[in-house]
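User: quick one, fold this
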Amino acid sequence: MKLYDTLERFYLSKFYVLIPAAIIILACTGSFVAYYLTKSGLGTLNFIQLTLSVAAAMAYLAAVLSQMPRKVTFSFFVYGMLIELILLVINVTF
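Assistant:
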C-alpha cells in the first residue's frame, strides 16, 4: 500500500506531465498484448481478451478526457495497467 500511495502522490504532483506518458505506456502495453493475441489466431477467447485490453486502455483515456478527478484517473491507470500486464503474462506464457 505504501508503494501505491507513493506513486499516487507522484502522479498527482506531476499530473499534466504524466498524462501523455501514461497514455503512451498503456498504448504500448496494449499493442504488445494485441500482437501476442493475434499471433496465436483470433478465436473467441482471444477476441474477448483483445476487447478487454482495448477497453482497459480506453477507460483511462475516457477518464482523462472527461476531466474526472485526478485520483480517479490514477485508479483507472493502475487498473488498466494491471489488466494489460495480466493479459500480457497470460499470452506470453501460454
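User: anything notable?
Assistant: The mean pLDDT is 94.
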